[in-house]
Amino acid sequence: MTLSTRPAVWRFADHDSVRTADGTTWHRGLRRPHSWAALGSDLPERDDQALRALLDSDPHAAFAPVGPDAYTPLPGRPLDGPRALELLDLRPATAATLHRHSLDRTGALLGSNPGRRSAPIAGLRPADVRSSLRGTAQRHSRARITLDRVHGRLHARYAIGSTLHTHTYVLTVSAPVGGPTQ
Questions:
Q1: Tens-digit pLDDT profile for the chain (182 aa)?
Q2: Is the CA virtual torsion 52, 56, 59, 65 positive or negative?
Q3: Which residue of 25, 128, 145, 154 is most buried, as measured by CB atoms within 10 A?
Q4: Does residue 135 come out as left (phi exceeding 0), alpha (psi in the -120 to 50 range) or beta?
């Protein structure tokens, strides 16, 4: 067992993807649920631990969570009110990476469901996540915030003008590769 040099994704969800430096894109749930496969490749399927090891060993590998569909409710249980955000327990997560999507009129007209993806922001502490969600709830009274503990994610969705913003915080852990991260 080797120590991870960067935080590992706590839990994966089907339809997540990982792109490696050599251009191979792995998709979770492509052929079978909970299994990673490379589209158009004869490479054997891999499990979550193998993809965690791949992400750790390839500094240019990029993880992309599935973007929540703008036309369906956010996954997970709602966190309504400031008290729910104060009591939010993110353990065993030690950090999070923020993935942002925005769906404007042009994207909706072109048929995009999750919207345009922005560059991820890594290395957020649990306190940063909690503070960011509290700020979102205060600035946008109609914001929807959910905790999807099954997949290790927090989601926040709000609208500014005609643009729908969805933030997905993917929880990460600092643990040995092959260790108890699931």
A1: 333 456 788 899 999 999 999 999 999 998 899 999 998 889 999 999 999 999 989 989 999 999 888 889 999 999 988 889 988 888 888 999 999 999 998 888 888 888 899 999 999 999 999 999 999 999 999 999 999 999 999 999 999 999 999 999 999 987 544 444 44
A2: positive
A3: 154
A4: alpha
Amino acid at residue number 72 = T
Residue with tokens 């922005």: 118
Cα 23–29–32 angle (5° rounding)?
Answer: 120
User: What gap in Å lies between CA 30 and CA 36, rounded to an integer?
Assistant: 7
pTM of the predicted model as reported, rounded to 2 decimal places: 0.86
